[in-house]
Amino acid sequence: MTTTATRTENDALIEALQEAQLTERLEPGGIYAFKHDNHVTTIDLLDRNLEHPRRKTGTVHVEDAASFLTYYKKHADPYSETYVNIDAGTITAVLNAHCETENLDADASARWGDHQLILTLAETDAWKRWTYHDRKLIRQADFADFIDDNRADIRKPTAADMLELVQHFQTQTRVTFNSATVLANGNKRLVFTEETDAGAGAKGQIEVPGQLELGLTPFDDSEPYVVTARFRYRIQGGALQMGYLLDNADSVRRDAVKQVVTHLQEELGVVIMRGTPAAG
Questions:
Q1: What is 101-147 written as a DSSP string?
Q2: Which residue in 101, 164, 180, 274 has the most C-beta neighbors within 10 A?
Q3: What are phi and psi of 193, to 5 degrees?
Q4: What is the pTM assigned to this prediction?
């Protein structure tokens, strides 16, 4: 009985490697190609084909401080570095940052910096609503609806006073606003004339507070802040437009980021640097 040996691709590869007379060992992390019998054979040693990755890589995005702490404590080492971009509201940990060179040569101390953890602080819905309308003048009725929908965020005046004001604005739909006066206490007095089918009717007035005191939490991980919203208005062609101006909203937001940074530093026992790390 005659047995015919079957030549496999593996046999061809072995021959190719022998013919190549390699002087260096094939290292994981690359793709090697060898030409034999007018064919090119490739050997893929990229990490995805190994049984286990050679090292940790990748960028993990989390949305709250608790998740950041959990992942950091699991994967960080004494040489990990953490940065904060206060304006962007992001905190980035480079978990495999470079080591110190005091006891290591330059090659041994250099690491890839491609295992990163990024916390993007999530703004609360209330903060987004109030900052979205900041410095915008809108129609009287729309402004009244906005105040009514967000009365829970208003500390002063009281909820009852704000409800009365909103209801007053909502009922004064057929009026012509004539003038506005700033009172001694900072409130505004808006003077209007009621519109009737026969023409102009009785005159009336509405007194609105000069400002609101809001209780707002910029981020899910920050504490609440007291923010002042100063009323703004414009009378044009008898129509009233209203809005508000938030005092120091940018400063409050930045301070809220610093508040989260302080919390993380205390929990982790590390110094968080201001800036942006090099791309991993």
A1: SSSS-HHHH-----EEEEEEPPBPHHHHHHHHSTT--EEHHHHHHHH
A2: 180
A3: -120, 130
A4: 0.74
